[in-house]
Amino acid sequence: MPWATALSALAAAIGLFFSALVASSSVDATRRQLDQDERQQAGRVGYWTEFAPWSDGVVETITVVNRSLDPVTNVELWWYAPDAGIDPAEHGWVFMGFHTLPPCTRLVFPPHEIGLYLRSFFGIEEGKAPELRVIQFVDSDGRQWLRNPSGLGPAEHKPEGDESAMADNGQWLAEVPARREPAEHCDK
Asked: Which residues form the signal peptide (predicted)?
């Protein structure tokens, strides 16, 4: 009968092993679902650039879109000024900020408005605007997100630099110099 006890113990061990695998898989699935739920609104916010045909790849139209049913706040568009020949000691990262991007809305920033903004606040010559590198925003749950060409992720801090330097590197605008349009493919 010792073999029966050993066989029972082996069967119990195998059962425990498979129970642990199922539990681990369930925990992983729950974790993935929570991550997906957390990213749901942020995943519906994006941007893209379009280069004007006469610009030799310099002047761009910027489109920022919120396809979610909730507004996003503290929206910042970030450029790296040295891409436009600005001395990094004078300006590194520069931004344009606005307080709210309404739900189901697309903002289209024409090249002349971007050029005027960058020239007025940072001395970047007309036609030499650097490419938009990053947008940051806060979702309806208060989480800050960063979207760049590499994708979407939590924004843990501003682009390089300390907070006091950032105050001189951007403006919060009451009136956004963009055309407002309804967003396509909005969750309704």
From this structure: 1-22
